[in-house]
């Protein structure tokens, strides 16, 4: 078991059993609901992109796995231009194109396969998505399309804090623990918090230097509606049959309403990996 796994409570935190192709399809079932259900990311992430990774007006930027655009809008607001968004799910890609129009060049292919010009980008970013990419092929492609001195930034939000007590975690365990591959913060926890493996991937690619890892803790207020919307975007919930999914989400709503008086403020964690493209 990787060292990072010890940060997760027993019974939850198993690796997701959903393949990349299946996951890509699941998230496109309801693009508007996915975009509304997932919260954005803390300002500290984008401030780091500015101060460390050079994001500023006119920065040629690539976003990998843009989903519903939770990070896309902030990248645009802070100067990413031109911005190419790679989103393999056609429904989500179409949603992105409608949402952002001509400001974003949307590519509807897996990142490993999309054709992009060599050394075209000063910044590449991926928000809670790069775990769906084959790591070796993805990092090789990334090294090819980033210009020397350009920056890579990948981050994930884990929707609870594995280092703190969380009463909502305990209350939802009987509902969620039986789901195949489920963990309380989404399906990415073991991947994103395995620092040694993620850093080893970057260093092993041979094209990156100055690898750094940072964690940002922030609070998320959940009520029955927002909890339903958030948990309804997790791949292992989406993978359920419609009736089963509806039962799980209703039970989550009931816990928030009856056990927590209608709301619960929990600490969540966003973990950020950054690295610079070496000169050839």
Overview of this protein structure:
This protein is of the alpha/beta class and 280 residues long. The chain has a single domain, classed as Vaccinia Virus protein VP39 (Rossmann fold, 3-Layer(aba) Sandwich), CATH 3.40.50.150. Helix content is 38%, strand content 24%. The protein is built from 12 helices and 7 strands. The chain has helices spanning 20-26, 31-37, 43-51, 72-77, 90-100, 135-145, 167-176, 189-193, 195-204, 224-231, 235-238, 242-259, and strands at 59-64, 80-86, 104-107, 121-127, 146-158, 208-222, 264-277. It has a 7-stranded mixed sheet with strand order 3-2-1-4-5-7-6. β1 (59-64), α4 and β2 form a beta-alpha-beta unit. It is globular and about 60 Å long. The two termini are 36 Å apart. Residues 1-16 have low confidence and may be disordered.
What is this structure, in a nutshell?
The protein has 280 residues and is of the alpha/beta class. It has helices spanning 20-26, 31-37, 43-51, 72-77, 90-100, 135-145, 167-176, 189-193, 195-204, 224-231, 235-238, 242-259, and strands at residues 59-64, 80-86, 104-107, 121-127, 146-158, 208-222, 264-277. The protein is 38% helix and 24% strand.
